[in-house]
Write a structure and sequence with these properties.
The protein has about 350 residues and is mainly beta. It contains four helices and 17 strands. Strand 13 and strand 14 form a beta hairpin. The longest helix has 14 residues.
Length: about 350
């Protein structure tokens, strides 16, 4: 059996000798590491301002059957009768700071010989799988109207800021949009490297106010400038870097209609009361302005090379010998996992030669 296996190995080694002799066996200096963000040790501070103009009508929450003591609205200085819708224009304003522990991953390609680093597949959930809140205000301008229960006059033509509670931000993620610009490694006296790189990303934002989306998967393209350090460890690498960036963008909203959302409007003449209204309208566009500062730490494990059967970190003659010695069988050399060592496995090995 042993002689038969040796004969097979010798035969196949001869058959593929011409092929392997054509391979350029240059040792590649670049290493690829699968990196994960340490959420507990990483922080994100995101200052976000979202504004969304909209228009529609206000009406009292009076209902003859279900809420007969509710507020009624009537247009003009003197009112009239009934519960009448009042036209308005307004804008949502969300403005505040988010603090979170991000989650994410990426691949770092490190070339120590060429002193270069690049990132691929960067994906970071800046909210850390949580939902954030920001204080929300409606800046509203309406025509003159009166309310009854409570009795009050609301002069028109004046923009009034009305706090309406918190808006929810359900998504804030950064996805790498193309291959990163090659960054520069600088050796440190204490070991390891410092680096500078730039990663193009799409920042994806989703937010909601009064049950209506003011940003639904809004995409803000930008570039994240990254500066940091890395150290090689027994397991792979440990990294620490900072990200900072800012951007702004305005996008149309195609499905921004909402209806009969509660709005507690402070009375004007006299003051001190609250008119309980229902607000309906349509959001037409959303403008976002963001400023991001993040500190990201984590670790990376070196990617295994398909075809590195002897575990020496590269694919070469020793790996080819192992594969050929098991040709037609299973076990070491079954790179594609189909249960038999054959031509497909040899093709993978040769494609990673060197």
């Amino acid at each position: 059996m042993k002689n038969s296996m040796s004969g097979r190995a010798s035969s196949f080694a001869s058959t593929f000798a011409a092929t392997t002799s054509l391979l350029v066996c240059a040792v590649a200096s670049a290493q690829s590491f699968n990196c994960a963000v340490d959420s507990k040790g990483s922080t994100v501070v995101q200052t976000t301002t979202i504004t969304a103009p909209f228009a529609g009508t206000l009406i009292g929450n009076y209902d003859a059957v279900n809420n007969p003591t509710g507020t009624q609205t009537r247009p003009g200085l003197f009112g009239g009768s009934g519960n009448i819708p009042i036209p308005y224009t307004a804008s949502f304003v969300l403005d505040g700071e988010l603090n979170a522990n991000p989650l994410g991953s990426f691949v770092a390609d490190i070339d120590e010989e060429g002193l270069q680093i690049s990132f691929t597949g960067l994906s970071v959930d800046l909210l850390g799988a949580s939902i954030a809140t920001l204080p929300a205000t409606v800046n509203i301008n309406y025509t003159t109207f009166r309310t009854f229960s409570p009795n009050s006059l609301f002069p028109g033509g004046v923009t009034i800021p009305v706090p309406i509670g918190d808006a929810t931000i359900s998504e804030l993620q950064a996805f790498q949009s193309s291959k990163a610009t090659i960054g520069v490694l600088t050796p440190l006296k204490a070991g390891g490297y410092s680096f500078v790189a730039a990663v193009p990303v799409d920042l994806v934002l989703s937010a909601e106010v009064l049950g209506a989306p003011v940003a639904e998967k809004s995409i803000i393209p930008g570039v994240l400038p990254i500066t940091g350090t890395l150290q090689f460890t027994a397991e792979g690498i440990a990294f620490s870097f900072s990200i900072s960036g800012s951007d702004s963008q305005t996008q149309p909203v195609t499905d921004g209609a909402f209806a009969d959302q509660p709005l507690a409007l402070p009375t004007v003449f006299p003051t001190g009361g609250t008119a309980n209204l229902l607000i309906s309208g349509t959001v037409t566009e959303v403008s976002t302005a963001t400023n991001l500062t993040a500190t990201i730490v984590g670790a990376g494990i070196e990617q295994t090379i398909p075809g590195d059967l002897d575990g020496d970190g590269s694919v070469g003659g020793g790996d080819l010998t192992i594969l050929l010695s098991n040709w037609g069988a299973s076990g070491d050399g079954d790179i594609d996992g189909d249960g038999m060592i054959g031509g497909a496995d040899l093709s993978i090995l040769l494609s990673n030669w060197g």
